Amino acid sequence: MSRRSLRIQVKATAIQKQHTPVLKESSSAITEAGRKRVRESTSEGLELVEHEEKGGPPRKKSRKGTSKITQPSRGTSVERFKNARGKLERLAKDVPLDVVLEIFCHLDPGDLLRLARTSKDLRGLLMSKSLEAIWRVARANVKGLPPRPNDLNEPQYARLIYDAYCYVCNHKGRCENVLWRFRARVCKNCVITVLPLYNDEYLNKQPPEYRNSDILPSEVVWVGNTSITVASNKWATRYKAEYTYEALETPADREQWIRQKQKDLQEIREHSHLSHRNFFSFRCVCRKWNQNRLDQRAIELNNLCDHRKTDILARLGKLGWREEVEHIEKRGMYRTHEQIYFEYARIVNQSRNLTEEGWVNIKDELVELLSNHRTARLEIETVHVIRARYVQLSQAYQRINSKSDFREPLPAIGDILTANVFENLIWDTPVEEQVDFSAKLSEHLPHFIDKWRLAQIQELLMVVQKSKRGPTLLVESDLYLATSIFECIQCKKAMHYPQMFYHRCCFRNKCPSKISHKRMETFQSHYYDFHEYGPWTPRTLVLSDHCLPVMQTIIKSCSLDPTTTTIQELYSANPLIQCVTCSFDQKSLCLWWPIVFSRDHWKHDLKINMSKKSKKAAKRILRKIDGRNDPICCAHCHQEVDMSKLQQHLVESHIDTVILDSPTPLHTSDLGDIQEHWYFNPRRPIQSLYRQFYSSALSLRVASQ
After folding, report:
1. pLDDT at 225 over 90
2. 128-132, 379-383, 685-689: the lowest-pLDDT one
3. Within a 13 Å sphere around the CA of 674, how many CA atoms are in the beta-carbon half?
4. Do 91 and 9 fall into the same domain?
5. Are residues 272 and 213 in the same domain?
6. Other Cβ atoms within 10 Å of 354 Cβ, number
7. In terms of domains, do 132 and 177 share one?
8. Cys-Cys crosslink for 441: which of 262, 298, 445, 454, Cβ 3.0 to 4.6 Å?
9. One-character DSSP codes across 135-192
10. Residues 367 and 242 in one domain
């Protein structure tokens, strides 16, 4: 028995005055015809099927099982869900009809469509033809909604504009691609794979009587940046069946059928506002309204998401996690932990309000997520600070190193970075503190260099002792001899003391300490190979055996003693050597003595020319061939300068210390004239010293004298 109350009866009077036409029409129709139901057709949408509802059969009793079923405890979510069942059904059965109709008048067609799918009673009520006026009132509640086309009823039109699944594949995702001429929603994938193209091949499959009569609808869709025109096999099949099997016996009937279909297509085009004049224009009312609805819904969802996010941030701020939330939303330098951000976004960025129960459910998960992010963030920040300290220490050492005397061995950058005193400064100093590496280097570097230099010279002497040559060199002074030529077993380059301390192959070594090696890997992966940041070691050096006889011959030709002649004395003698093997056409290949140890000239037949006339001719040709200048080091400030600019540098920077008697350019003077003011840069290989000095000329051809 339906429920009645005095309050509802009083309200009914006011409601009937507001919607008298609608309620009278609907109530009278229900009284006469009863409530009717509708069935949804898979081919044409929803078909209205009317029948009187004379009361349903009695409800069957459920069979009692023999096994015991554990009932959920009182107050659980399962019990609350069961108690909530049937409320909409009781709305249709127990609430007075005029109140139900009044409620329906304040909804939109989408709400009515979803209500009709909740229960059989509501479906029977809403799908009855007598309530068509309610659907019209609900449609009028939607601002800017285009009018209903004549070929669709109210539920079908509501389904077209409010449902969000594909009519072809029934995908439940958000399918917002509405083909208004086909009265269907079709996802982009089905448009490409299912719908045929509207072209000559499609038209040739239609009956010849109307294939060119413009009665088949088509739709322009965009696939990427390209527009295509598609057709519908469903419409083509239906038209073919109507034309073939319906009673169209005479040509006049067929002509009348074609004109009617042309009129229907024209109405479809007018409704979608896509006439032939603006066929490729997408400014139709239907599309505009649908896009505006989607935009408005997106704004609503974004507002809900922002409100939820603000509420969560306020609650997290009370727990002390607000700062970490700001870090996790930046993401910038923490891209390696994107999974944490995505998990955070999944929990926070939801389009629904935050309730107390919802906060209880996500609180622990959020706190754990933020805790993990803080740990990962601090690890990354620590690594960035450590790497920055390595760079700062390297730059500070390079500034000091650039002003040092390169004639004395200096530690490599890898030796400084792996030294205990500096390594502890980098790793043990708290992250939030700054380290003044320039001051620390000034404090600890002199003692470290003295200790390091003594140890490395002893290792270099051990290399000499391992050689198979007769007497071994046991003192440091013997390393300065011109006959003490070392060779790298990897690059096969010859070098004198102290050039090996700046040789690149000697830096490509791992740290002997595992802790230091792991820390250097944190600074630069493959630091010992590609970056050459390893500590210096003489493991690739040997005492050259094949260069010794050639060097002894050169020294003896200069009337010097091979056992006592130093490399600086050989630079002062500066012998000119002719390679007989490489000479041809009555011309001799002349080269300075450092070039002998490159390009295998030491294997050739050599002739040493000490005449001053030959030297002057060679220098004259050198100046004509090569205009570049060789960088050397000033003996006073140890700055690298060009040889031709040495005189200018000495006058400008060391005028109080150096007085030059002659303004003659330096390249016209012999090397030994001003030897006390400069020295060759030991950081350059022995083969390139004189080549660089004379503009990188490897070989010079001087006419035989």
Report:
1. no
2. 685-689
3. 24
4. yes
5. yes
6. 19
7. no
8. 445
9. HHHHHHTSTTPPPPPTTS-HHHHHHHHH--S-TTT---S----EETTTTEE--HHHHH
10. no
Q: Which two tokens stand for residue 591?
A: 């080269």
Instruction: Kindly state whether residue 68 falls inside one of the protein's structural domains.
Output: no
Structure tokens at 114: 């979803």
The answer to whether 271 touches 180, Cβ cutoff 8 Å, is yes
Residue for token pair 């009337």 = 559
**For residue 391, what pLDDT band results from cuts at 50, 70 and 90?**
very high
> Which residue, of 383, 411, 434, is where some domain finishes?
383
558 and 690 inside one domain: yes
What's the distance, Cα to Cα, between the start and end of the chain in Å?
A: 136
Task: Look up residue 259 and give its two tokens.
Answer: 């004109």
Q: How far apart are CA 650 and CA 687, in angstroms?
A: 27
Helices (H), 273-355: 285-318, 322-330, 338-348
pLDDT tens string 16-69: 444 444 434 444 444 343 333 333 333 333 333 333 333 334 444 445 444 444
| Strand 541-543 versus strand 486-488 pairing type | antiparallel
Q: Which residue has the higher pLDDT, 572 or 533?
A: 533
CB 493 within 8 A of CB 503: yes
Q: Provide the pLDDT for residue 204.
A: 86
Same domain, 184 and 273: yes
Per-residue pLDDT reduced to its tens digit, 296-309: 888 999 999 999 99
The last residue of one of the domains, among 495, 525, 543, is 543
Contact assessment for residue 633 and residue 640, using Cβ atoms and an 8 Å cutoff: yes
pLDDT for residue 688 = 53
| Nearest-angstrom CA–CA distance, 330 and 345 | 12
Cβ atoms of 501 and 487 closer than 8 Å? no
Does residue 348 lie within any of the structural domains?
A: yes
Q: What is the rounded distance in angstroms from the CA atom of residue 256 to the CA atom of residue 269? A: 20
pLDDT category of residue 613 using cuts at 50, 70 and 90: low
Q: Where are the alpha helices (DSSP H) in 466-594?
A: 514-523, 547-557, 567-573
Q: For residues 158-188, b (16+ Cβ closer than 10 Å) or e, as one string?
A: bbbbbeeebbbeeeeeebebbbbbbbbbbbe
Beta bridge partners of residue 607, listed in sequence order? 578
> 428: domain range?
402-543
Same domain, 665 and 557: yes
Residue 118 domain-assigned (yes or no): yes
* Residues near 398 by beta carbon (within 8 Å), at least 6 away in sequence: 413
Overall domain count for the chain? 5
Inside any domain, residue 72: no
- Give how far Cα 472 sits from Cα of 134, 462, 481, 484, 494, Å: 113, 9, 13, 11, 19
Chain Cα centroid distance, residue 110: 42
